[in-house]
Amino acid sequence: MDARIFIEPQQGTTYTEVLAFATRAEELGFDGFFTSDHYEKMGTHVSGLPGPLDAWITLAGLARDTERLRLGTLVSPITFRNPGQLAIQVAQVDEMSGGRIELGIGAGWYEAEHGSHGITFPPTTERFDRLSEGIDIITGMWLTPEGETFSYEGQHYQLTNSPALPKPWQRPTPPIIIGGTGKRRTPNLASQHATEFNVAFHSPSEWAAACSPTVEACETRERDPETLVWSAAQVGAVGSNEAEFSRRAAAIGRETTELRQNGVAGTVEEARDCIAEFEAVGCTRMYLQFLDLKDLDHLTTMAEVLDL
Predict the structure, then answer these.
(1) Which of 86, 100, 182 is nearest to 139 (CA)?
(2) What is the extent of the structural domain holding 45?
(3) With b meaning 16 or more CB within 10 Å and e meaning fewer, what string describes 197-233?
(4) What is the pLDDT at residue 266?
């Protein structure tokens, strides 16, 4: 199983803590290090102090401060950034990293953070329309040959004679991650544009069922579904013994019984069994969500689970 770390900086952290966590993950042999893209904490078990981090500023720092890890968002809402602006940001950070960036992108869902930061939150249909147009623009700018311009006339975005620069380090484009449990628009977008399809926080059987519409969309488009990476995201909470697991569950405000049902959680052997269940239904990449970035030893225990 290809294993990546997934963090949630909106819950309250600093770049110094994030870098320490990423450095340990790189040393231990994890494949990637991904961040959510949110501006406001979730839940009542954390204060949110000292505050959220901006995902793409964080990734720019990690691009220079790490050497091997794949880096990206899971996922960036199209509501946060104009797609022409996001195309430039991702291309620049890709160059800064030497070609290690991946773009997870979605329609956005967390209405509260939009209202508290003055960001427009359109109805669902419009957000998906914007996502579709946004992906067209981002990939169109990246794929436009150097020396030519890119124009686009959409319902929500219009570009006229964009120089479509800079180009990303990775050609033709950085990998694009699309995910979710939608039955129609998400699968269609993924079958057309995605390198990877992700379903988060579902059991193995639920994960497989949620992937099925995208498999069908690929087949309708005459795309081999095997050309997609099929990935899951799960909260990670493991311990070398029950007491250590209980301590880590309490640190993130979760109950041990609930975590065992809804995460890669428990003892080392229990976590291995959970990952094996995902492998059995076709998952080839796992994003492990770590919520306590001060617990660097937790990464070491998870590396043991994965035999890194």
Answers:
(1) 86
(2) 2-305
(3) bbbbebbbeebbebbebbbebbeeeeeebeebbbbbb
(4) 97
Identify the pLDDT of residue 206: 97
Q: How many other C-beta atoms lie within 10 A of the C-beta of residue 164?
A: 24
Nearest to 210 by CA among 159, 273, 282, 160: 282
Name residue 81's amino acid. Answer: R
Q: Quote the CA–CA distance of 135 and 131 in Å, as a whole number.
A: 6
Q: State which amino acid sits at residue 293.
A: L
User: Partners of 199 in the beta sheet?
Assistant: 232
Mean pLDDT across the chain: 97
pTM above 0.70, yes or no: yes
Q: Give the per-residue pLDDT at 45.
A: 85
What is the rounded CA–CA span in Å between residue 84 and residue 96? Answer: 19
- Does an H or E element contain 64, and which? helix 55-65
The number of domains in the chain is: 1
Contacts of 123 (CB under 8 A, 6+ apart): none
Cα separation, 48 vs 60, in Å, equals 22
Give 269's contacts (C-beta < 8 A, 6+ positions apart).
none
Residue 237 β-bridge partners: 265
Q: Do the Cβ atoms of 286 and 256 come closer than 8 Å? A: no
How many C-beta atoms surround the C-beta of residue 152 within 10 A? 16
What CATH number did the domain enclosing 239 receive?
Answer: 3.20.20.30
pLDDT at 156: 98
Cα 293 from Cα 305, distance rounded (Å): 19
Which residues of the chain register pLDDT less than 70? none
The helix-helix angle for 296-305 and 268-280 (nearest 10°) equals: 60
Residue 40, number of CB atoms within 10 A of its CB: 16
